[in-house]
Design a protein that fits this description.
Strand content: 35-45%
Number of domains: 2
Largest sheet: 8 strands, mixed
Number of helices: 3
Distance between the termini: 50 Å
Radius of gyration: 21 Å
Helix content: under 10%
Shape: globular
């Protein structure tokens, strides 16, 4: 059902404007956010009720607003209650020339694993949470958290920006996104945000558009990373937790203008009242299918006894990868299945305090 009328939306900067457009309601009109996007037109708004949406969304070149009810109320708690979660791939994709009028506002963006692209250096994975290519959307007032990319050659745990993209990154909290793997040499870049040499986003840039960017993991550019040399990126007035910020959190240091920064978080995060999303997590193995090695990653919220085991299709234990006490945080394990036959296997993570999760993988020779 389309509703067409003059409506007023409260934007985070707390001013109102009027626009003639359609509002598409999720889940009342459409059961998924992507279905609403597919049925929208330029200038429309997709308004999403609180809840968890397990899907990947692609704006498909449409300059539309996709937002939670935070748009109407300005209530920041709604950001944490409206979750877009992916079980594979980038959670949100902009790759079809979207402009600054394509807006993503008021969501928790989580559990993304990135978009695989072929490059001259081989396959690389970009943008665990948000992948932006040849587009310049506005990303504002989102909580981008717990997007993890494993294997080698990963770029941008929270956001990846490439191919002459110039997005506006305003008033987000980007934290606890990780680029991890088993490689021992420097190969993981941009835990929070990764930017190529041809792109020139604005990250914060003013006291009214400050982001919180901290607690992300990578070899270089833990919070932000620029691949190569280009125009200096305006990354002023952000909270980095460490101040003044320095390399390797920001790398290369001279590619970012951080001449002004904040010494405390902004918004609802000002009181450090940040909810924890998915304390425990067992990620899908990568690659899958695989031959003969694959990587399994998982997250623990507290130190605990852990068992990570492999089972065959008959439910018989084939291998134990981890058995013992482990610290809180991210862990990565490689399984070498050279001595096992092709087929479907299951891996199960169990902890002493009651968490248990099983996922399927395929060994294909």
């Amino acid at each position: 059902m389309f509703v067409k009328f003059i409506f007023s939306i409260i934007i985070v900067s707390f001013y109102s404007f009027e626009i003639l457009a359609n509002i598409l309601y999720v889940p009342n009109d459409y059961s998924t956010i992507q279905e609403a996007i597919d049925n929208s037109f330029t200038g429309d708004t997709v308004l999403v009720s609180t809840g968890t949406y397990i899907e990947n969304i692609d704006y498909k070149g449409k300059d539309i607003i996709v937002g939670s009810y935070y748009l109407q109320t300005g209530n920041e708690e709604i950001i944490f209650q409206t979750i877009i979660e992916s079980d594979r791939g980038s959670v949100v994709t902009f790759k079809s020339g979207e402009s600054n009028n394509a807006i993503l506002c008021g969501f928790t963006i989580t559990e993304g694993t990135g978009t695989v692209l072929s490059t001259p250096e081989g396959n690389r994975i970009f943008g665990g949470g948000i992948f932006i290519s040849k587009s310049s959307p506005t990303i504002k007032n989102n909580y981008i958290v717990n997007n993890d990319m494993i294997s080698g050659g990963n770029r941008g745990g929270g956001i990846s920006i490439k191919d002459s993209a110039n997005p506006l990154i305003y008033r987000n909290t980007i934290t606890d996104n990780d680029i991890i793997g088993i490689l021992t040499w420097v190969n993981y870049f941009g835990g929070g945000i990764w930017i190529d040499s041809k792109s020139n986003p604005i990250i914060g840039g003013s006291i009214h558009n400050s982001n919180n960017i901290y607690g992300n993991t990578a070899d270089n550019g833990r919070q932000v990373f620029r691949n190569g040399w280009g125009n200096i990126i305006n990354a002023q007035y952000n909270y980095w937790k460490k101040y003044p910020p320095s390399s390797p959190d920001i790398y290369p240091f001279n590619q970012f203008d951080i001449s002004n920064w904040l010494d405390r978080p902004v918004g609802i995060f000002e009181n450090q009242n940040i909810p924890i999303v998915n304390n425990y997590k067992l990620s899908q193995n990568y690659p899958n299918p695989f031959n003969p090695r694959t990587i399994i990653s998982y997250r623990l919220s507290v130190q605990t006894e852990v068992d990570l085991s492999i089972y065959n299709i008959l439910g018989q234990k084939a291998s134990t990868l981890v058995s013992g006490k482990q610290s809180a945080g991210k862990h990565v394990v490689e399984w070498d299945a050279s001595d096992f036959s092709s087929g479907v296997y299951f891996y199960r993570l169990s902890t002493k305090n009651g968490f248990s999760k099983t996922k399927k993988m395929v060994l294909m020779r």
